Amino acid sequence: MRKCASWLAVLAATCGLLAQGCAVSRSSSGAPGNTQVSPASSFPTRFQFVYVIHGDAGYAYFDQNGKRHLADSEAESQAEEVGLGAKDAEVLIFHQRPKHLWGLPGGQGSLRLYRNGRLERTAAYARKQDGMQAEADLFRKYASPAEHRSFFYFGHEIPESNGIPYSRSQPELAFTLASFAAGLRSFAAPMRRDSGKPFDLVALSACHGGTPTATRTLAPFAAWLIASPGELHLTYLDTRALIRLTRENPPRSARIDAGAWGKALVSSSFSRLCENTSTSVTVALYESDRAAAYLDAHRKGWEITASGTGQTRGGPQASRDHRDCAENPGFGAGGLEAGVTLLFRAPLFGPDKNKSFTSGWECPGPPAT
Amino acid sequence: MNNFTRYMALSVFCTLTAATGAMASASDALEARYQAALNEMVQATKNTSDPAAKREQLGKFIDHMAQGLEKAEGLQGLDPADRTTLETLAGKYRDYGAELNGTAGFARVPDGGLNAFAGYIQQGMEQAPLGGGIYISSGVLIVILILIIILT
Fold first, then answer.
1. Cβ within 8 Å of residue B24, ≥6 positions away
2. In chain A, where are the structural domains located?
3. Which is nearest to A126 in space by CA: A143, A110, A115?
4. What is the domain count for chain B?
5. In a domain? residue B29
6. What is the CB neighbour count within 10 angstroms for residue A194?
7. Is A42 in contact with A145 (CB distance < 8 Å)?
8. Cβ B22–A24 below 8 Å, yes or no?
9. What is the pLDDT along chain A (369 residues), one digit of tens a residue?
10. Which of A217, A366, B106, B120 is a good FRET partner for A92, with 20 to 30 A between their CA atoms?
11. Is residue B97 part of a domain?
């Protein structure tokens, strides 16, 4: 029976390939298409949460009861909960889906826009440009000016350089840390902020987002960053605490402590991940200006390994080791002094089960033995 | 299905794959089968009450994958990056086997930890496609799928 299933998988894959071939020749829809949207209003939004969820790769996982889950769909469901539950908030959820087989119309992405707990707009769109340009275009078209903005990215590790196809159905679309940053810049275009940074918080719900290069690249965009300097299982970050935080929040005139919000998200996500996984759990909150200043002062400890041979991160080779940057000469201890709050639980098994993690950043290279 | 038929089917599949260059749906199907096999391994471990039998089942799966991946490293015409992936995966499975049995400097997985250990293997592989530091290409998935077919 299981042999049968295996051979059926081969057959299905073969059929999929044939179908894909047809899709390439028939796909000609323009962007953005099939929309049910209207022009932007000037809704005075207090909170704005933008979710970009990548779903065009392997995002399936099984829980310990044998139930199959799709991590990107679950991330979208959680974001929808925030959209329905958050007070005085606008929530935009972009879900990047695989390109349709057979060239069916409907696009490869969907947008859901919630305002004050109501679903106000939905749209389907085509992804034909690198990075997050299609999403940024829709954002500029339909999002409202907002007082406090946060950005959440859900996906696999964002490569620091080209080499690995990121989207399975559209491997020609480049996605790297640089194109992610370019996307954030596009989202930031209509910003209205006193702090000079477009977002209070940017979170990468992806593996290996806690590198010095990533922090240094993203620091100009947000006062606070959330990322994982290590593995992050597909059960992902949990942002549902935003519902409570927006409801508990003081009146409009009061200032928001975005760092406290970040800590709440990191803490609830860490607890949830620890419950569900036996692999390592590493989540960090970076105060971006302090972290960037620390990294600038300790460049010797990470720049060489970050650029290195050009093969170590995001390159085409198969295996890439990582280690705590504190193991690099010249990096220093990092941690709280560098504006990093790190929550780490070693894996329950394996060679790293007694590992400690201190600096809050990981660098390329095998761990010291 | 005899071996000749299996390899003919694989050849046809590989030819189609290479000819079209369209890997997305193929990768999804192959990965789904690999994940299903891992899930079967986890559930079989959970559903076995005798610790010795659990350990034997787990050991059989791990050894099969490690040995098969090692053999696959020697295949002619393999992309160098895929060969490195196979080496890495084989190394991971060798480590799993060593920890299961308490060799090569690992503490032996206690009887009470076998279910969790099976889950640890599964989650490690679920993270692998990009996040786990290993890029599992479609070529590697094909090799893994064949191993699973031979295993079951």
1. A16, A20, A56, A98, A99, A168, A169, A170, A171
2. 43-296
3. A110
4. 1
5. yes
6. 6
7. yes
8. yes
9. 445 445 544 444 444 433 333 222 222 233 333 333 334 444 478 999 999 999 988 888 999 899 999 999 999 999 999 999 999 999 999 999 988 665 555 568 999 999 999 999 999 999 888 889 999 999 999 998 888 899 999 998 898 887 677 888 888 888 999 999 999 999 886 555 555 789 999 999 998 899 999 999 999 999 999 999 988 888 889 999 999 999 986 677 677 889 999 999 999 999 999 998 999 999 999 999 999 999 999 999 998 755 443 333 333 333 457 889 999 999 999 999 999 999 999 999 998 898 888 899 999 877 665
10. A217
11. yes
Q: Is residue B143 part of a domain?
A: yes
Angle at B131 between CA A344 and CA A200, to 5 degrees: 60
Instruction: Tell me whether B79 touches chain A (CB under 8 Å).
Output: no
Say how far apart CA A14 and CA A7 lie, in whole Å: 11
Give the number of A-B residue pairs with CB atoms closer than 8 Å.
181
Q: Is the dihedral of CA B50, B53, B58, B59 positive or negative?
A: positive
Fold of A43-296: Rossmann fold (3.40.50)
Instruction: List the single best residue of B14, B95, B115, B126 to mutate versus A (max A Cβ within 10 A).
Output: B126
Question: Is A16 touching B (CB cutoff 8 A)?
Answer: yes
Residue B101 lies in a domain: yes
Segments forming the whole domain that contains residue B100: 24-151
Residue A232 touches chain B, beta carbons under 8 Å: yes
Q: Does A304 touch chain B (CB under 8 A)?
A: no
**Hey, which residues 14-73 in chain B have their CB within 8 Å of chain A?**
16-17, 20, 22-33, 35-40, 42-43, 46
